[in-house]
Amino acid sequence: MLVDDGTGEAGDPQAWAVAQTGGRLRDPSAGVGLWTEGQLRKVYPTDVPPQQQAEGLDLAAAGGECDVAQICLRSDRAIPGLSAQFSALLGPGQLPSETLSGNFVGLVNVAYPTSGRGITGPTPDPRLTDSAIVLPAGQTRSLLVTARVPADTPAGDYTAQVTLSAEGFSATVPSKLRVYAVDLPPTPTLTTIARIWDQHKGYED
Q1: Which of 1, 47, 72, 139 has a Cα at 20 to 30 A from 91?
Q2: pTM for this structure?
Q3: What is the pLDDT of residues 66-93, one digit of tens each?
């Protein structure tokens, strides 16, 4: 049982988790689950595929902007040497494969939660720079896919393929990138502030 900060109420960590927004894709092989997820949800090793279905990975951005989503994989058997490859994007124009990139999400072992809403144990957080990982048997890992849209890209829908592969294993995820008919300025001019805690300097300004 966890105690919520300052209220004395029991807190369930799952009650504070971001809801699943992705969908399950066709299983690439027996004992392997494949699905998509939004950028805000932490994908834990115990996560399982959602009930809702999806056709592929969906991304959307203006010129000069990025968008991020996740591809999740869970397997009954270990998959060593798992890596990701990206195709070129085809649509109103053609974008090189480098428009898409991916980082597997690593785990940090949290021994002591910093609040009553925290969770202990393996917690997804860092974006790994490793080009390949080992997917342990009976666990889930996610690939954070980033789309970086160059300025002056013709607007419209682009399609691509993201392939997860290892020796004796391959899974292809159809991907769609919607490019909006606007470019963001290279230097933002909108002044913003993220008010996380009311104690920080500038909160009342």
Answers
A1: 72
A2: 0.86
A3: 999 999 999 999 999 999 999 999 999 9
